[in-house]
From TrEMBL:
UniProt entry keywords in alphabetical sequence: Flavoprotein, Oxidoreductase
Record SUPFAM superfamilies: FAD/NAD(P)-binding domain (SSF51905)
InterPro entries named among the record's database cross-references: FAD/NAD-bd_sf, FAD/NAD-binding_dom, Ferredoxin-NADP_redctase_2
FAD/NAD(P)-binding domain location: 3-233
Signal peptide: none
Organism: Sulfobacillus thermosulfidooxidans
Name the UniProt record assigns to this protein: NAD(P)/FAD-dependent oxidoreductase
Source organism, top-level taxon: Bacteria
One Gene Ontology MF term: oxidoreductase activity
Length: 290
């Protein structure tokens, strides 16, 4: 029975592994962090997963783990795949090399970075980690989508001072998130661009520009949530020229998940479906070459 390596343990990767097992193959799942992937970054209830109204990300992660265990799918957490040599040898960061005739690659997404002076002061911490900090200064959040608004809501509900800035005057965040931000009276600066960040004793100074006027914000933390981009390991898949990764970047590599979906259509549901389609295509491909 053919083995397939599934790289990535988010919803798409888990879905793919389950479907591969159901279709008669032997998937082995590798996740560089923990099962759940980007679900670990979601703190508010998930409102749009059919059949599971307002399930929390933590609950969903536990269900994914149980599903994998039920199907007896081997899972290796903390194992990062870095290359697929000669379309048959999976190379792990630990130095281990394993033969797989095909791999399913669910790379997930990463936060898009701002290339500005002082970018080293942009925090890489999660909202949960920031909540554990002791500070009286505001927290500056850059962005107008769900992730920016979700972070602002969670911090404000914990009685932290929050400032939102966004380069446009309209937002991509869900309407309920926008309503909650208004209800919490979180200040929002529109048509505002973060220009640079400097560190001074006891604070960061975020310099911004709004309609030709300079603004300066003394803050404790700068969080950038301006969108996501495919988090590609070049040894597994060539770097894409756009925000969408090809389904078959290599002959024996099938990509899936949010990275292969156009930005407006990325969701947990589409990741599940992408995993199913990848599994079925891999099975057909293997049978064709049998």
């Amino acid at each position: 029975m053919a083995q397939v390596a599934v790289i990535g343990g988010g919803p798409g990767g888990v879905s793919c592994a389950i479907w591969l097992k159901r279709l008669g193959l032997e998937p082995v799942l590798y996740e560089r962090g923990h099962i759940g992937g980007q679900l670990h970054d979601i703190s508010l209830p998930i409102p749009d997963l059919p059949g599971e109204p307002l399930i929390t990300a933590r609950e969903l992660i536990e269900r994914l783990k149980r599903h994998l265990k039920t199907w007896e799918i081997p899972v290796f957490e903390g194992q990062e795949a870095i290359a697929y040599r000669d379309d048959q040898i999976l190379v792990l960061k630990s130095g281990q090399e394993v033969y797989y005739p095909h791999i399913a690659y669910a790379p997930g997404l990463r936060i898009r970075e701002l290339d500005i002076p002082g970018r080293e002061w942009i925090t890489q911490q999660s909202t949960s980690e920031i909540l554990n900090m002791n500070t009286d200064l505001p927290i500056l959040i850059v962005g107008g989508g769900d992730r920016a608004f979700e972070a602002a809501i969670r911090l404000a509900q914990a009685k932290r001072s929050v400032i939102l800035i966004h380069r446009r005057d309209h937002f991509r965040a869900r309407p309920d998130f926008q309503a909650k931000v208004q209800q919490l009276h979180i200040p929002i600066y529109v048509h505002t661009y973060l220009q640079s960040i400097e560190s001074v004793p006891g604070a960061l100074i975020a310099h911004a520009e709004q309609n030709g006027h300079e603004l300066s914000f003394p803050v404790s933390v700068v969080m950038v949530r301006i969108g996501m981009e495919p988090d590609i390991q070049p040894g597994l898949c060539p770097l894409p020229i756009s925000d969408v990764v090809p389904l078959w970047p290599r002959a024996h590599v099938r990509c899936l998940g949010d990275a292969v979906s156009p930005v407006p259509f990325r969701s947990i549901v589409s990741a599940y479906a992408s995993g199913m389609m990848a599994a079925k295509e891999l099975v057909m491909n293997l049978r064709h070459h049998a």
